[in-house]
Structures are given as C-alpha cells and as structure tokens.
Write a structure and sequence with these properties.
heterodimer; A: alpha+beta; 11 strands; B: OB fold (Dihydrolipoamide Acetyltransferase, E2P); 43% strand; binds zinc ion
C-alpha cells in the first residue's frame, strides 16, 4: 500500500530547467471542511478525521470522481503544532472512543491508512507515510501523477486544534534546552516562523526605512479577503473586519510582532484532487494545470537567519520556480505567498518581484491598492491571516481564480497563471498553476 | 532570570566546557578560514570535518536587531516577561551571531547598532551560558 520510500520527487535544486511534466498534470477538485477554532471533544461529526473525509468527498464530488478511481492518497500524518503542541495537540490521556476513534488517528492526526479504511478506497496504490506539509505535498502529488506513480490522487491537509494553549507543552514546558534548542531556548527563542522572520524584518525596516506598523494595510487586506472567502474561519464566525486602528492598538507577542500579525490555529481539513491533464479534461471542472513545483531547504549560517540570507534564499526560490515554469515575474497573475506571520510576505513579494516590486519597496506597495478588485490583488486568498491557520487558502484561491469561480474575490485583472505557497523563507515549496497547459 | 539550562552533547561539550571557564571558543575551519557557530559535525562551506578545530575568539560584537518577548511560550521564562531578545553579530566574523537578553539593558531600551561584549551567567550550579552586555 505504501509508496516507494526513496521516491525522488522533489525539485529542490538550482538549474533544473523546465519541469518535464509542465502542463501534463492538473488539479480537478477542491474540498474544504468547516473551519472550527477547536474540536469540542464531543461532536464525532466534527473530528479531524470526519472533517478530512468530508473534505475528500467534496473534492471528489467537485471533480466528479468515484472512490474506485482514487489510486493515490497523500495525507499529512503529523500534527501541525509539532513536538511542543501540548494539550491542544493530543487527545491522550483522555479516554478514547469506539472505533474508528480508538487512538489519536482521526482525532488529532489523520493518515492515509486510516482514511483509506474509513472511505473504502479499493484501488489505492500510492499512499506514502511520513508525508511532509502541504507545501511539499502538492509538489509530491504533481510529480507522482506526472511520473505515472498514480493517476488520480487525493492530497489531504488536516490541521488539528483541541482545548488548551497552543504549543505550550513538550519541550516548551521543559527546564532544559536539548539538541538544537541549546542554542536558542536559554535566551527565550522557542522556535517558529515568527522568530525566523522578526529579526530580519527589523533589519529590513532599518535598511530600507519603514516601521513595523507599515504592515497594517497588508494585514487589514488579508482580513478583508478572508471575509470574502465563504469557507474560511473569519467568514463563518462573523469575525468583524479588522481596521488599521484595531491593528495598531493590538497587543504585542514578540514586540514589534503584534497579535494580528499571527494566524489563528484552527481545526479543519482540506483536500485537492490531482490527476493527469488528459483525465482532468473529462472531469466536471475546467482543469487547472500545474506548470511547475519546486522546494527548498536552505541552511542558515549561524543561530539566527539574517536579512541577507533571507533575501538570497527568496531570490533563489524565485529563480527555481520561474525557471521550472518557464515564466517570469510579469507573467504571474495571481500571487499567494505564505503569510503565517505577517512580517514575512514582503520577502516573498520582493524576491519574486511580483508586479515589479523590488527590494525595499513592499511597504509602499502595501500602502497602495492591493484589494482584489484593484490593479494589484496581492494575496487574493486572504491567506492564514484572513482564514485561520489552514495553510490551504493560498492553493484554493489560485485554483478558483483560474477557474473564474472565486466569487467576491475574483480579480479584475488577468487570471491565467497563479503562484502559491506554504513556506518559510528557509524551507517549503512553491507551485505554479496555469489556466492553460502551456 | 530562570533561563532554560543547556544540555551539552558530544558535539557541543567543548563549547560549553569553555563557557564554563568563561571563555568563548568557536569552531574554526582551517581550509576556509571561517568561524562556525553553533557547532556542527563538518564545515558548512567545504563539508570537511578534519579541518575543524576549536578557536578562542574575542567576545566583541554588535546588536543587529532586537525584540521584546511579551507573550512567549517557554514556561520557565514566563516570569521574565517582558524581556529583550537581541541578535548579536560577532565582530570577528559578522556571519556568526548569537542570541542575548542583554542583561543590564531594560526592555524596550535596546540601542540597536551598539557595541556589546561577552559575559557569562550561571543558569544552574556549574553551568554558565554566554550573554552579552552593552559596552558603556
Ligand atoms: Zn571549510
């Protein structure tokens, strides 16, 4: 049932040239579960497992695919909160339930094996274990379909959250700093994308001029786009529109990082159906073609990555992506970089030079018109900041914009290519979609 | 300041042993003539393990950036909040950097760009860590 352990699917080197499967793989289905703040511990139709099954069913219905046609299942089988998740990430020691909820599987974790059993998928031949996060999963699926490892592949990204403070357990509750943490935790850095970016962000403000709160129009616009996303947390929970005043008066977490620079952990799942371009043409939706996928895992030189490194890494990630897609910055219509902590998007925006934005120009760009109906619809998804920490809004928006089904978020500018990511500057991946296969 | 206590391993023991003697000793690659911190099994540039030796460096640096931790996640550091967390570059090689709480500098009063010097702080009996203070 498991896929080949040493399957080399990554495109994580410089100079790989145009992707060999460019335009030959497509996304044919998308499905989102409801997005809850937490699982309540009672509603068995709202568990992470139930939500993952629901997301898969929706993605299959969207494409018009039946369970017997699914031959690949790529499901992230680790918890989004990681080793310090604490009580928000693990059901035990609370007592388990009757099957299929007699372990963490289906409650706080989901894997391909559990899903295949619950969904009665009889023909799965590719179901890898130890699956990375969504940034790499979409690349893995695209490569696997392109290589013929499977032909109709579900990609599932469950993001769990239970009662309790997020990431307040495990190593964060320890008195000792072990392993790599001996170089960070004694001084207070518990790790995370917020720490990765907040120091280079400070260097950025110093180098180019600008202040932290210049992020306000970007964050406010992310919330606006989130409220235009029918499935997202904000839109389904009557979250009021964030204002600049709310933002600049919000409390600090890692000063100058504010509460509203952070995304809200949620309990949700999303699924995407990848297939060959040829099959996709016979399915229910207009195919959205994959033009390239690329990954990166850059090593920092010392304890804290600095602005020079982050600019170098994002430049390299951009070159890899553009080379493999055979496109340049001017040809990217929709741009959904990751925003899981606000003071990071500027590095991607400038590295990928979207709409001609160069190093140091991002804050001026944010101060302009970045609304979806305007000329520069940056992050039209609303990202994590606008929808909750699903890490999937970027992908769904890319697909919907190219299909022309983004509803109130549908951009007024051309929408023929779309670039999305869940990535930190150091590690993760990018994927380029096209309305046309070439 | 109840800081987390570092747990030395085989690779880092020489570093922490030196810190416990109030000395700052970093890996140095003879082939590349580069300092390396934190310690690694091999030189990050040339991948040579044999070229790495331990070299004492002068504990002088500058503050490159700084934040104030107001709502962190480390249980042990909760009573310290709010506290400074600075990124300090080493003068001998600015590609090497360290974290510091900048003892003696009140939170929110960090002079970014200022010179700092290394000092040592006991976090558990017999276990010191390297810290940095602003040079007056
Ligand atoms: Zn070397």
């Amino acid at each position: 049932m498991s896929g080949p352990d040493r399957y080399q699917w990554r495109r994580d080197k410089d100079g790989l040239g145009v992707w060999e499967h460019r335009g030959k793989v497509a996304v044919a289905g998308v499905g989102h579960s409801p997005v809850d703040r937490r699982w309540d511990g009672v509603s068995m139709d709202k568990t992470l497992g139930a939500y993952s099954i629901l997301a898969c069913q929706k993605a299959m219905d969207d494409a018009g695919v039946t369970p017997d046609q699914i031959d690949g299942v790529i499901c992230c089988d680790s918890h989004i909160a990681g080793g310090s998740g604490g009580s928000a990430s693990q059901w035990a020691p609370r007592p388990y339930f009757p099957p299929p909820y007699d372990s963490e599987w289906g409650l706080t974790l989901v894997n391909a094996k559990w899903l295949i059993e619950q969904m009665h998928l009889p023909n799965v031949k590719f179901a890898p274990t130890g699956v990375p996060t969504i940034s790499e999963m979409v690349g893995m699926a695209a490569q696997a379909v392109g290589d013929g490892v499977c032909s109709t592949c579900l990609v599932i990204y469950p993001t769990g959250n239970l009662e309790g403070r997020y990431r307040r357990g495990g190593e964060n509750a320890d008195d000792y700093a072990r392993g790599a943490r001996q170089w960070t935790a004694p001084w207070g850095n518990h790790g995370g994308n917020d720490f990765i970016n907040i120091f280079p962000h400070g260097q950025y403000c110093r180098k180019y001029g600008g202040k932290h709160d210049d992020l306000a129009p970007f964050v406010v616009n992310q919330h606006r786009n989130g409220l235009l996303t029918p499935w997202g947390y904000n839109a389904t929970h009557n979250v009021p529109q964030l204002t600049v005043e709310d933002y600049v008066n919000s409390r600090y977490i890692l000063n100058p990082l504010r509460l509203w620079d952070c995304d809200r952990p949620v309990n949700a799942s999303a699924a995407y159906l990848f297939t060959t371009a040829e099959r996709a043409r016979d399915m229910r939706q207009k195919p959205v073609y994959v033009l390239n996928h690329s990954q990166h895992n850059f090593r920092k030189r010392s304890t804290q990555e600095d602005l020079d490194e982050i600019e170098d890494w994002t430049d390299r990630a951009a070159r890899r992506m553009y080379e493999g897609a055979g496109l340049g910055p001017a040809e990217v219509d929709i741009f959904n970089p990751y925003d899981g902590y606000a003071p990071m998007a500027q590095f991607f925006l400038e590295g990928f030079q979207w709409h001609g934005v160069k190093r140091g120009d991002a804050f001026a760009f944010y101060a302009g018109d970045i609304r979806v109906e305007g000329p520069h619809p940056f992050c039209s998804s609303g990202g994590n900041l606008g929808n909750g920490r699903t890490r999937t809004a970027m992908y769904t928006d890319c697909i919907e914009q190219l299909r022309g089904t983004a509803g109130a978020r549908q951009v007024k500018v051309r929408a023929e290519t779309a670039l999305g990511a869940f990535t930190t500057p150091s590690s993760g991946g990018w994927i380029m979609f096209g309305k046309h296969p070439s | 300041m109840p800081k987390l206590i570092p747990v030395p391993d085989a690779l880092s023991k020489p570093f922490w042993d030196a810190v416990n003697q109030r000395r700052l000793v970093l890996q140095h690659c003879a082939a590349c003539n580069r300092l390396q911190y934190p310690p690694q099994q091999a030189c990050q540039v040339c991948n040579s393990a044999a070229s790495l030796t331990w070299k004492e460096v002068e504990g002088r640096g500058h503050i490159a950036a700084s934040i104030v931790i107001e709502d962190g996640r480390l249980n042990r550091r909760m009573p310290d909040q709010p506290y400074n967390l600075a990124m300090v570059t080493l003068d001998a090689d600015q590609r090497v950097n360290f974290y510091s709480n900048l003892p003696g500098t009140p939170p929110y009063k960090v002079p970014v760009g200022a010179a700092v010097e290394v000092m040592f702080e006991e976090v558990a009996p017999g276990q010191l860590i390297h810290e940095w203070r602003v040079v007056a």
